[in-house]
Design a protein that fits this description.
This protein has 156 residues and is an alpha+beta fold. The protein is 33% helix and 26% strand.
């Protein structure tokens, strides 16, 4: 019985490497798209949580609560949740959105300086507020109804 040399030939290795390169070039774009979608969902969920928190603080404290951008920043920057009492206490600071995300906020076709919830959890304004998030090809929307309800990609 003859003992042969065990191993792979150069052609077998080249074919294996070529198949791996093709597989990686197909997988990477879909993986980066998945990451972008997850980041957009996470950013919008963070904004929805902040709005829900502000609304619940207004109900629990029986006072008006505002959510507004840190002075000098846009809505995509840091946000603060502030109780509208004699001291205007800041109860929570929210981090800025990730990367190059843009956040458009409109109420009655104008950008509001803040969003305020009354002691019953409803918006202090008479108009719903729309948040429009964009980052690259990803776009999301969030609506705050006049009654204070927060609806992701929904309607009042």
């Amino acid at each position: 019985m003859r003992q042969g040399i065990k191993g792979f030939s150069l052609i077998e290795l080249l074919i294996t490497v070529a198949v791996m390169v093709i597989a990686v070039t197909v997988v990477i774009p879909s993986f980066s798209g998945l990451i972008a979608r997850n980041r957009a969902d996470a950013d919008m969920a963070e904004i929805a949580r902040a709005l829900g928190y502000a609304r619940l603080e207004a109900i629990n404290r029986g006072q008006r609560v505002r959510i507004l951008p840190v002075p000098g920043q846009l809505w995509a920057g840091q946000l603060e949740v502030m109780v509208m009492n004699t001291n205007s206490d800041i109860v929570r600071m929210l981090p800025a959105l990730s990367g190059s995300a843009a956040l458009g906020v409109t109420a009655n076709s104008a950008t509001p300086a803040n969003i305020e919830f009354n002691s019953l959890g409803a918006l202090a304004s008479a108009y719903p507020v729309t948040f429009a998030y964009t980052k690259g090809n990803e776009a999301r929307s969030l609506l705050v109804c006049v009654n204070g309800r927060v609806a992701l990609n929904g309607a009042c």
